Amino acid sequence: MSVFIINEPYVKDFNRTQRWAARTRGRVLRAPDWLAYATAVLEREGIPVKLFDFPARDWDKDRLRRLVNEQRPDFVVLDSTTPSIYSDIECARMCKEAGATVLMVGPHASARPEETIELADGAVDAICIGEYDYTVLDVVKNYPHLETVNGICFLDRGKPKRTVFRPLIEDLDSLPFPAWHHLDLLRYFDGSKLYPYVDIFSGRGCPHSCTFCLWPQVMHGRKVRLRSPENVVDEMERDIALCPKVVQGGEFFFEDDTFTLIKSNAVAICEEIVKRGLKVKFSVNARTDTADEELFRILKAAGCRELLVGFESGDSNVLTHMQKRESVDDARRFMELAHKTKLDVHGCFVIGLPGETEDSIGKTIDMALGLGLHTVQFSGAVPFPGTRYFDYCKENGLLKTEQWDLWLEDGEQAAVVDYPGLSRDRVKQAVDEGLKKFYFRPSYMLKFLFQTRSMSDLYRKLRGARNFLSYLWNERRAT
């Protein structure tokens, strides 16, 4: 028996493993972490498995066809996202024609399992819904008796059938570490992070109710589950052995929805890092309502470089509509403490959520410019299936298409919602406007260059700047 787990090709630079699946303006490329967990689970069971990341290798569909026809795996596991789903099914058909049993995982197939199975028309044998680490293993071990596997959808006598719901994984320490040894970690890049960077999770789940946020609503649920600090730092030590450059100018990035949510666990991880004498840099996701001077100082002492924060909007009405449960005042207090404790902050902003107006767009851009942020990202709001934002848009006649391949424009993120008085084109324009106003300030550009820490930091900055300028140039040519 052999299993191939594949982050399949789509358009060049497509980043399917982030929360907003698209080719990003900064050409971010993130490792397929969830696929790497599923790979590790199979390996631990002694099942021959290979993990392939086609976008990282710049491999196309012809290469996929040759791979599966030459090596003839028994099972192939493919990821799915909303804008790529038709292409994902095309890839599934290639694998099916090579004789493989095809499983599909990921947010789009999880949100729309019946629809996806029917669209695949026999090319996909089963969909593993939601958190799939152990579901993939169970399908492989029990195939073809799919009715015995919890948490899947499959064709039964020509009709989609769901099996019993699979509970979330309670003991995250029971999971093996991601199978990074199948990948070249130096291929992954994000201009807002030190190079190279390695993703790590200390927990899964988020208790908050932001209407647009995909992962808690579709993949990992609202219940927070935490790994033990010892287990987390064990993984960091393993990753350093696999990729020594992560401590030679690079960093770890804690991809938890909110690393700072449970202060006691965040502190315990920091204390474990210090106890073991690890000289690491790391960044974490945080919320403004978790601002805490003691925590920030402990994070800094353990090697934390940057806090990544979803400020989302500078307008209180928009924050209320998205059920963010944070305020503009929270944002200002957070930044005061971050500056006081000398932690950089990467600010994330979303334009085009319900309640957005020209006035609120202006407030958001002004807020991004005035907070003293280290780096920013602006995104156009996308109502992904499975989220309450999607349901809202559909119920109110705002969704302009459910033809999923129209959710990108030549690989770039496309706005698919028109509001009265706020067009899709205006949302896209505002995103670019915010980025240009932030990054093209002369004072920022000088600071950006003169605060370079090392050759790897210079590489990161120059590559990130080149990627963004390339995006702007292509947009200019398109218009």
Beta fraction: 15-25%
How many helices does DSSP assign?
Answer: 18
End-to-end Cα distance, whole Å, is 51 Å
Report the strand count: 17
Structural summary, described in words:
- The structure is a single chain.
- Helix content is 41%, strand content 15%.
- It starts with a strand and ends with a helix.
- It has 18 helices and 17 strands.
- It has helices spanning 33-44, 54-57, 61-71, 85-97, 107-111, 113-120, 133-142, 214-220, 229-242, 263-275, 293-302, 316-321, 328-340, 358-370, 388-395, 424-439, 442-450, 455-478, and strands spanning 3-7, 49-53, 75-78, 101-104, 126-128, 152-156, 159-162, 197-200, 203-204, 225-226, 251-254, 282-286, 304-312, 344-351, 375-380, 408-409, 412-413.
- The protein is an alpha/beta fold and 479 residues long.
- It folds into 2 domains: 3-162, 3-Layer(aba) Sandwich (Rossmann fold), CATH 3.40.50.280; 190-381 and 417-478, tm_1862 like domain (pyruvate-formate lyase- activating enzyme).
- The model has no long low-confidence stretch (mean pLDDT 92).
